Queue: 2 jobs
Job 1
Amino acid sequence: MSTDAKPAGLTKRDGGINWATLRGDFPILHETVNGHPLVYLDSAASSQKPRQVIDAIRHHYEHHNANVHRGIHELSNRATEAYEAARQRVAEFINANSRDEIVFTRGTTEGLNLVAQTWALENLREGDTILLTEMEHHSNLVPWQMLAQRIGAQLDFIEITGDDGELDLQWLDEQLARARLLSLTHISNTLGTVNPVVEICARARDAGVVTVVDAAQSAGHTPVNVQSIGCDFLAFSGHKTCGPTGIGVLYGRRELLEAMPPYQGGGEMIAKVEYRDVTFNVVPHKFEAGTPNVAGAVGLHAALDYLDAIGRDSIFEHDQRLAKRACEQLGEIDGIRLFGPSEGRSAVMSFILPDVHALDLATMADQKGVALRAGHHCNQPLLAKLGVPATARASFYFYNTEDEVDRFIEVIHHVRKLFA
Amino acid sequence: MTTFLDTTIDKLIENFDFLNDWEERFAYLIELGKKLPPLSEAEMTDEHRIHGCQASVWLRMLPQSDGTFDIHADSDAFIVKGLIAVLLLIYSEKTAEQILDTDSTATFERLGLDKHLSPTRRNGLHSMVSRIQALAAESTAQTV
């Protein structure tokens, strides 16, 4: 079935998108928090969901719910069609060659663990090197640490240049020459850096290194095309792309997926089972043991329709406009330490005020209805490298407005007065 | 010695009641936190660090000659320092037995902190109480 999740609030203003009217599609953005209108600046942790996504999930449970793939009856056929249509939609969204290259997971974390525990466990040996960057989220670090400990592999890191959060690529070819696998983030969840993944993956390919891209922060914010990136694997989460929690995507190049052993055993992933023997199902089903998150896939389908109706190029431009406005105003605060690049960055920004601890700022901002994040953002080694225990983080999305940026800055000034 | 806080736990509860909203209450906690004497750099070691808090927290219990404990604690975040001040009003200058017998849950409820702190902050507060009680229990085990 077609979810047809077009944004109802998509209107034009001055020949462009009227971003403010899109907010009408997001029921939660009209919440009041501690007596103030909600200003939600934590989309890098989880995005909000438009009514179209919520309706699609509801519609699924009200009309199509049954188990997938093995039913004979009508509802099972509908559920299977909806689930596989979502897979096809994801393949189009990231321009995969085929929907067989799309594995549904619980989220980015599971996708990365899946690659570590299947392809990497099967192909890497003691003494091999796994190349990461210093800005990886714990979910793109810990799975590799666990694997390295198990097989005796070692980790190497592409360093960052400093507070501006750019990758130092001057040693990349030497590092690639020693590595078997490179896993890196497309957009940093703490620094807002947009890494040159096309260039890096091309150089990795030349060196015969398998590449994994963590697209958790990018898939919903900017066009992500696995063929032009040229990566071998790419993972993202539904809940950061306006979709539901508990659904994610792992893309893998077909020949790699086919050569990989399964991740978990159970129903759905088998072709034939005897008491002492099993033949596995074809890709991608051999990686999806058990009843999958069908409603999650349906919700994700609606989310991707919604995002593409707006256009990810436009979303990224809007993100950058808000980031620029916020950076300029934050930059006026004496003694502030603002992390990440000044140009071409995403709308995730981390900072430290000279006089207010990040946790105190987030707590007091919450009293004014402004949702910020404070802490290590699952980036403990990165923060240790930067020499800070915690940062405050604001992250914007297309449903945020210039007025909200200004309100955020106003609240920062208000909180600073309380601590003066 | 908690005289630097210039209040008692009963007065604190009364003041909290009197304040209009949580922004004012947090501002009051921040003011209390500012009165907390800082720990020296030398005391901010891993041994005294309490994990399980989002902010960095260090805590020491110094036994006094009368059998009570002076609690010294510090944090890099002021609201946490304010919460430490509340804990000092509850637990400092008490004997190990008194510390182990004192359940702070009821006090936090009366202050409304159980409802108005985020779950992660409540965990942090719980970690501090656990450390105070564990150190008290350790000292009674040693003296028996």
Note: The radius of gyration of chain B is 15 Å.
Job 2
Amino acid sequence: MSTFNSGVTQLLSKKDSKESRDIYWTRYLPYIVLVVVFVAVSIFVPYFLTVSNLISVLLQTASLAILAIGQAAVLILGGIDLSMPGVMALGSIFGAIYMRSGGNPIIGAVVMLAVPALLGLINGISVSYFGMIPFVVTLAMQAVTIGAATMITNQISIPVPENFCNAILMKIGGIPLPIIIVLLLTLFLQFAVTKTYFGRWLYSTGTNIRTSRVSGIPTKKVVLAAYSFAGLMGGLAAIIMTSRLYAASPQMGKDAVAMDIIASAAVGGVSTMGGVGTAVNAVVGAIIITLISNVMNMANVSYYLTLVIKGIIIITFVAIDANSRKKSTK
Amino acid sequence: MTIPYLKMDGIAKSFPGVQALKNVSFEASKGEILALVGANGAGKSTLMNILGGNLEPNNGKIYINGEEVRISSPSDAAANGIAFVHQEMAMLPTMSIADTMYISSFPYKYGLIDYKTIYQRCRVVLKRLGCNFDPREKIRNISPGDQQMVEIGRALLHNPQIIIFDEPTSSLTSREKEHLFEVIRSLKQEGSVIIYISHFLDEVFSLCDRVMVLRNGETAGGGLVSEYTNSDIVKMMIGEKEIDTYYERSEHKAGEEIMNVKGVYRSGVISDISFSLKKGEVVGLWGQLGSGRTEVARALVGLDPIDGGTISIKVDDQMIPVKQSETKKYIGMITENRREEGLLLPMSVRNNMSLANLTNLTRKKPFSSVIDSKLENIETDKYVKRMDIKISSKNQRVETLSGGNQQKVIIGRWLQKNPPIYIMDEPTRGLDVGAKADIRRIISDLAEQGAGILVISSEIEEIMSVSDRYLVMKRGSIVAEFGSNATKEDLVATATGAASEKE
């Protein structure tokens, strides 16, 4: 059970002080929201509670969940990565171009991973070694990548070989591979951030980078690793998204996707102020956001109203987080 | 003799846990420069902050020109003709000189800032200070000395009768200092009351007419500067009959050299820092606040950059030069600001104590990146017990601990890692007497076990109770070294510059 609580809080005592009891409920908030949303959707949407529909919802969630996991790593560190959609789209496009020109699908997948990882590395170097502000660096990176992706493709989707997509989407025991990937990845990362010293370094750097530095933690490398990891997760999301669309498209990288990623992290309980959150939080948030998106889609809510609602969701959850922080460190 | 223009009577001020001022009274007349001196924490700044309206006293009265006044804000102080030239210049580097001088009181005309008037008045004031800059010049383009002049200019804008200078020379070159003194003397000629706070007694002797010495929040003495010698003032600063009851000296046996620092400098901050540290000895780095002692500590562990010099450390029985970014591996650093740089406040005692040692707390291959939580708990327990840290559980968040226990958590963190060298900057600041004694005992124990320790403290009794040797800093350099037989007077006199003038 303890591994399912978020990073810092799981390290806290059960009955610490009065103040910490006040902040206690917020750690369970994502799970409460998930249950409420799930029950509401089950009641109002016919055929929602069928196995095939649930699997399709989870398949739909997979790429967002992976992006949210990558984002979580950077947020825990106290940074932010707004370039994930563009980075993902560009990786997908390079891989698709490679495969269209007769390249091996396996190497195609490697290209889709490597390009975003490299771009993530550039983000990381800019933030850690050049001391640039993450918001600005990654916003600029989003502009560069989405611009490049649109120019390269002329806004036309690039089809990818069917055998590539089918391999990625294959079912094992009736469950599509992307869902299994998310599951294994989540379990692995949950273990890694709570049980290894890399994980401890990530949380300590996000909680107080100065203390971490004085204590001899290689904070620059930790920052670099987190942004590179976010890039790599962009690549993994690119492979899954491309397979589901059977094509690479610059549309994958539109700015609004960044909103879904941040919303997933925030709703799931990853603090935008650093030091708190885990992979499980990111995935729970991604499921909530996917469910909400689906419902709004079915109810024919306009695209613009969707943006308004998601924006409000982000602000609400960040406010709850900020408020609980204020109580905990007064 | 003129009548006293300013009188502060029976001023008392306490902060939580500290009585900063107890019944301090003094008078100052127009046309004289009064020096206010005292050791770190004697109450000089508190007293002047009360006069400047930044603090309100618990007790006492202030009279100006014979009338009682109430000063409860900086604007009250300004209205009563009091101006404060601060030690740390509150400068806005990207703004102009004129903007900086007028930032809190822009005059308006037709709803717009009236720059014509501003520039005109700035030129008048700056000229009075002997400066010829264009008021439109950006602050970052002028030297620190000129910035100090702008700061004084800002204070002079409203024609103050009482001007307080708080350590105005700390960032000035000697030529700039001379210029500043001329300006202060001319302000005196014009009939202002000048209160001059300084760490440097040589300045007091060359500039001031009268001196007042504060010690532990009380008036320790004072009078015409010409009636005193350096050593009289030093004696008043440290007190003659203080007995070191709490501060039992402990001697350690020094072994071979483990760290050697040569010519480390950072321009404008510290210069030519060279010293050596031996196994099993505690070296006290003593100096006034702002003398560069904290900067030296930070430079040695790579927290602040350096421009040159070498740091050699004994590694595997050999002294080798270590890159500045690598020294952290061998040095346990305790910074002066616990909350900002010492602790992970929302995290547990255990996580805080294992922070520097995580890579040694892992399982065996192939799981060498996985933390062995059993080992981590054992290590935590060991040092919690050894340091006598009062906690309800290892999971308790450190922000809920008392200051003394928090500090012990930080020291325990380094004990767990067990480096050969420790640097402790103000390790007992803000702690109660019991916690202070505990930490001094730990320092002594560490030295006995063979660690080399550099200790910085503002409290002279404390540094004298733990150190075997002393390095004295002044204006960014090490100016003297003393053995264990040094007296308080030696240290204070050297750090305030009195001794270097005489000998």
Note: The radius of gyration of chain B is 25 Å.
